[in-house]
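Run log // design_07
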């Protein structure tokens, strides 16, 4: 009697698993006779995907580089998205580690600020690092727009032509 009840529960659990999976995964559990085996097969399949995704994200974070024309906010957002995805997979990245990865991803154009921030005795905070680089970026944009383009002779020639 107990065995019959157990078999009925196992069949119900297996049926629940089979109707709950997406059609693409049904092949994995349709030929299995026990709920535990079906669960194990799904666990193995999704575990491999989990590890592949985890490895991809970790590589992405470790090789993070700021694009030449990429603005600071977009670069920091990319880093934070990777951190958030890693956290969802159960592998959180602390703020100091993220800030150091972001610092390493800056090109040599900000070498002085990068060196100063990396040499601090305290742990880095991502929002502070972003703010510092954003300030430098804003200054460089202001300087670039304030610079006259071309030489004085070229400007005079252009003005005379109009």
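design_07 sequence
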């Amino acid at each position: 009697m107990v065995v019959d009840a157990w078999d009925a529960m196992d069949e119900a659990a297996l049926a629940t698993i089979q109707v709950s999976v997406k059609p693409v995964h049904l092949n994995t559990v349709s030929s299995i006779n026990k709920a535990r085996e079906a669960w194990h097969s799904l666990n193995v399949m999704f575990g491999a995907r989990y590890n592949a995704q985890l490895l991809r994200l970790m590589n992405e974070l470790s090789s993070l580089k700021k694009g030449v024309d990429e603005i600071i906010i977009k670069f920091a957002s990319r880093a934070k998205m990777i951190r958030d995805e890693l956290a969802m997979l159960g592998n959180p990245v602390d703020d100091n580690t993220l800030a150091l990865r972001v610092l390493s991803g800056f090109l040599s154009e900000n070498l002085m600020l990068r060196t100063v921030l990396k040499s601090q005795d305290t742990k880095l905070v991502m929002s502070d690092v972003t703010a510092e680089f954003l300030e430098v970026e804003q200054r460089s944009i202001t300087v670039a727009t304030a610079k006259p383009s071309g030489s004085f002779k070229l400007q005079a020639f252009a003005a005379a032509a109009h």
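Residues 64-150 form one domain.
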